[in-house]
Design goal:
The chain is mostly helical and 234 residues long. The chain is 51% helix and 8% strand. It contains twelve helices and five strands. A hairpin with a 2-residue loop joins strand 4 and strand 5. Helix 1 packs across helix 3, helix 2 packs across helix 3 and helix 10 runs antiparallel to helix 11.
């Protein structure tokens, strides 16, 4: 099954001072203050002052550091805002007229995947679009009424909820524990590490409430893992 993701509006970090955001992304990239200073062509002392708030970055300095740290565009906006500057990257809904060429390209890719299932989701694992094969497979495994009742968030089917819920895909995935472990760790990173998103945290906490999920996400995982293996259910 092919899966693609699209961007939705980001939720700022809970402690969104520029210094803390800078430290967060430096740690994410495994860089010391000295490493960042050398890569960014700035003194280590200045990096330390930016972290502590003793110095305020210029707009050019923010852009220089986020480029070194390879910060995603939406998070670059957050860091610019935290430093007192206007965001420079716009966020546009997929349904907006100005992104019609992108929307048509996505629809073309979905059609080209037939007869194999293909999905487009947002960063919170909510289903945006799917091709006919994916719709047929989903409706074959889960009754459409259950889809709307158990698995929708804000009117969209949530793929994580669909995978973890006992009345969702779980009974039909032969290697569910392996898949669920990887997915739980990914949602954890999204909630607590990468973006500190309230929506990602709420999803992680919900998944933890499902049977078997709490013990799965903390276990060690192999470097390689198998794709979901569909079975006839239990």
């Amino acid at each position: 099954m092919a899966i693609a993701s699209t961007s939705t509006q980001s939720t700022p970090n809970r402690d969104a001072s520029f210094g803390n955001l800078l430290k967060h992304w430096r740690n994410q990239r495994g860089l010391s203050q000295l490493d960042l200073a050398l890569a960014g062509n700035v003194s280590q002392r200045h990096i330390s002052f930016l972290k502590s708030g003793r110095a305020n970055p210029s707009r050019d300095m923010v852009l220089q550091l986020v480029a070194v740290l390879d910060v995603p565009l939406r998070d670059q906006n957050i860091m610019l805002t935290a430093a007192g500057f206007a965001p420079i990257y716009s966020q546009t809904d997929l349904s907006a007229p100005e992104v019609e060429p992108i929307r048509k390209a996505i629809e073309f890719i979905l059609r080209q995947q037939e007869p194999y299932p293909a999905l487009v989701m947002d960063r919170y694992w909510n289903l945006i679009q799917s091709n006919t094969a994916a719709q047929q497979l989903t409706n074959w495994l889960v009754h459409p009424e259950k889809l709307q009742h158990h698995f929708c968030i804000n009117g969209r089917i949530n793929l994580m909820r669909l995978m973890f819920h006992p009345q969702g895909f779980k009974p039909f995935v032969g290697n569910w524990e392996e898949i669920a472990s990887h997915l739980m760790q990914r949602v954890y990173r999204e909630a607590f590490v990468d973006g500190h998103s309230d929506e990602s945290m709420a999803l992680f906490q919900e998944l933890q409430a499902y049977p078997d999920a709490p013990r799965l996400w903390q276990q060690s995982l192999p470097r390689t893992w198998q794709l979901p293996l569909l079975t006839g259910g239990k």
